[in-house]
Amino acid sequence: MTRQLFAAALALAAGLALLPGAGGAREPETTLDADAPEPDAEPEPGPEVATPELPRFHVDSAPVAATGRTLEVPAGGDLQDALDRALPGDTVAVAAGATFRGPFLLRDKPDSGWIVVRTGAPDGSLPPPGTRVDPSFAGVMPKLVSGSDAVLGAAPGAHHYRFIGVEIRPEEGRFLFNLVRFGDTATSHADLPHHLVFDRCYIHGDPTLGARRGIALNARYAAVVDSYLSDFKEAGADSQAIAVWNGPGPFAIEGNYLEGAGENLIFGGGDPALRGLVPSDIEIRRNRFTKPLSWRVGDPAYAGTPWTIKNLLELKNARRVLIDGNLFDHNWPGAQNGYAILFTVRNQGGRAPWSVVRDVTFVNNVVRSVASGINILGRDDNHRSRVTRRILIRNNLFDDVGGAWGDGRLFQLLDGTRSVVIEHNTALQTGSILLGGEGAPHLGFVLRDNIAPHNDYGIIGSGTGMGTPSLVRYFPGAEVRGNVIAGGDAALYPSGNFFPRSLDAIGFTDRAAGDYRLAASSPYRGAATDGRDPGADFGAISVARAPAPGARVGAPRGSSGAVKGPDRPLGGAADHRVDDRAAAIEQRRVHE
What we know:
This protein has a domain at 1-27. It is 6% helix and 31% strand. The protein has 5 helices and 41 strands. β1 (70-73), α2 (79-85) and β2 (91-94) form a beta-alpha-beta unit.
């Protein structure tokens, strides 16, 4: 068999597919090529702008038809025995409302059919696929609990388990480090669990004591969809709803409510047990990332425990990441300085010099009520790492950034990033638009067609003056044009930008009501470098954030609808050109 055919067979067996034109099917990368250069010897890119690569592999989490037996587990029954007896294709139906005490272990089974572990309640008791559950559905879910070890673990190589409509939590009054713990000690590709899906599940810590982590998702081919993860909080240590540091991917994190005091979702943060591993091919869509105000010291809702607060999303070791159509809200200074989103490469313990943050596409998101926006680090300043490169931040709304929440800085870039593009965003922040400094200059930088207030410092670098002096020092050769910077001084900046005297002079449709579309009378209609309106396309954001009911990874997203709930309506007709690269991914799905 040729190498190409053999690789194709491997990919097919794993339930993976290669995107067209990529030169032969293969599994996601888990180790460095033996001939790969060491991090310090890695060729540096030039000043030209490079486009991020989208995920190569994708998880299809759509429901699968049952092909085998149904094993019913009544209240008081032996769930572990049912899991052990289940064969690929079987369904384990667990009594709704009953409590089952673990820990439970998923074992490696022959063949590749799915074992479905689900509530014994009828399908109609849960919302349809593509719709998030919330705690009100707990009554129709079986409750899997543990008082000491993780509730759910996986034997080496365990695979093809799908959980639907299950509640996972600690026993009352107990603090657990992990509720679900997969793959963190795996030292070979074969030992990693794979093909694992949590669909419409309620996973939460103790309401008083919290828990350190909801899911340690160290696996390949794994998804958490339309689930509700809450009460992950700890004082004196980081806590997360989902964390990945020893799993190669691909991953789908879609449609969830994610609540964590430290990092709601993190990739990296611990040295992988597998040499060369970088979590890859990650899709993060249509989630809500938030921290309850009852965790915020000084807030009227504060409940009295000073949990360790950091950020909403952090990438420390990750590549080929699509972050599309999410709501990020409520983040403030605590154990960090309040940035909501961190793309900050870290070789955490010094034993993973291959660590990198690369090929990140951040589109169609809403970031609201946070201290500061996005922090990007070019190199780990503690241990050797690879260079952060190819980051695209396009078509997002940053609203209520700073003020009562904190510093109000929109973007911070430190120590020599490569090919960071920030374009077509609308922002209302109280601090600077961009801070650059502390280390090497940033090459291939683009700031284009955005709308934001200048405030006191606009674009500023450490130890340099505002505007052009900072751009020359920290962003040599940068493209900065087409931006509408309210209250700025045109004399301080490159030509080709716009400087209305105030936010009101921009001509929003209704700024007081949060409608930041440009009115027909705005002097900046069609003034972007591409002939469109500067700022975000709010119709495209609404489409990305509000898919039609029943949609799921691998299915087309919804075609219309304003954002509702905790997010204000955005309105406007969609211009899909803004998200054409992300939308193209829909044509390249993997199916089981």
